[in-house]
Structure prediction request, 408 residues.
Amino acid sequence: MLIYLMALDTEEERIKFVRLYEDYRNRMHYTASILLKSEIEAEDIVHDTFLTLTDYLDRIDEKDSVGTWNYIVTILKNKCYNFLKRNKRIELTEDEEVFEQPVEMYNLLENQLIKEEAEEFLNTLIKGLKYPYREVIYLQYHNKLNSRQIAELLRTSPANVRKISSRAREQLKKGMQKKGYTCEYGF
Amino acid sequence: MNMDFEKLLEQEARKAARQDYEEVTEKTKDYSYKYSKAFIQKMNAMIHEEKRKAKKKRRWHILLVAAIILILNAGIVLANDDLREKVGELIIQFFDDNIHIRSSKEIADSEEIFRQLHLGYVPKGYHILYETENPTTMYDVYYEGTNDNYITFMQGFKENVDVHITYDGTGRKKVQVNGKELYMIKDGNITSYYYEDGEYLITLSGTEKESELIKMLKSLK
Prediction:
């Protein structure tokens, strides 16, 4: 008979939680501080994020540090933006913009121009995606999460996640076309 | 959507995710921010699973769960209130798959100052993974060794602590260390020791050899 006792559940989970705390709290606090422009408020968000993470410990693979960070930062940013909205520090309107800045502003660095690699430019565009577009793309393509799993992290519906993903991909493709990357890359 | 774009998108998304992670890692390499006491206490509480009840008296429940358990001999342990042993003021109560250890006395909230004990000896190859910062009623420390070995030590005021541990029914006995009566419980490859020291309940648990754990207990001061 196999019996699991609960609560932060097993000793292994507690140790895993402690390791996550030690390894990621500074990255989390730094990221939250920039978004909230407040180190003290960032502490609250970090604490709140760790509370949420206790529900997802079994889904986190510590060996994949990038994947783990994708998980954590998505939850963290979700809480940051919700906090900012509640405190009316950002507008509550539906945001149609997918990129942080207009595509025309994304210029390749000289070495990238010399190389003229579509990959480099797409990489730049991906990093220029706004929240939650970038996070959804990372969770989809790196963590291989489905829309239901991503929806849980973002506290939204799977349908909304699919919409976000679809918009992000559509805008990335358009962005490539604007810069002249066409037929041979299938855009 | 064209398959080439999807492949390219996956390739670049994975690369971008890695670059973002490396960037934030680099920026926080020597992060000098000092977390507030309130934050540290909140995180300690979360790790210790502190449960604050609405009553005047506070009780903290610590669940130490060692591993997956097989009950080898169901005849030894039953969910029976009569199956108890007493070690000093501690009551050790047996259920079918776990043991409950608690103080026999109902003591009001203590105004005692917490005096943390220190382990003078830690086996080679272990490092601290986590320890309580600024303990006020409980202190614990996790040591991580090689090959998934670990040792945990906890010291807390007796009236604040309930301990539930899994037990495979294969080994339990009372031992004497430094003139104190200890309760030793085995659960697979995990050995745990429990005893009282004045107003404190002390627990030491781990996958290390019994002789090394005893050495650690003897080094406590």
